Amino acid sequence: xxxxxxxxxxxxxxxxxxxxxxxxxxxxxxxxxxxxxxxxxxxxxxxxxxxxxxxxxxxxxxxxxxxxxxxxxxxxxxxxxxxxxxxxxxxxxxxxxxxxxxxxxxxxxxxxxxxxxxxxxxxxxxxxxxxxxxxxxxxxxxxxxxxxxxxxxxxx
Length: 156
Hints:
Elements: H1 2-40, E1 42-46, H2 48-53, H3 57-65, H4 67-77, E2 81-84, E3 89-93, E4 99-107, E5 110-114, E6 120-128, E7 132-137, E8 149-154
Antiparallel strand pairs: 1-2, 1-8, 2-3, 3-4, 4-5, 5-6, 6-7, 7-8
């Protein structure tokens, strides 16, 4: 009878340890899912030179042929700042002082920013760390983005 009691006690402890381990693993996975959200939250500034490096050659040549257009693009994208708040709000300002706001939602590696009028800006997160964000922009119909990838640095 003593053997049965000891075996039951050992098995009970093993079950408790197993359940605690399982809970710990599941809790860790849930936190990892939020880690992407947590890394995204904050203020980001566009790195224009890195973003321009990914431009198509024909787009670069077109810009070089039109200094006025090139200057406008530089002004619009220089000092572009994106802010992702923890409550799901999004805001953006550019080098010309234009402001945009809306909401953001992360679905896996897909980032969707929605304006108050319902327009959506959909991007894939290529890289996200505490201080670096790379977004792959999607085309809208026949319009392709001038910068296929946006390279952003987190503001401290």
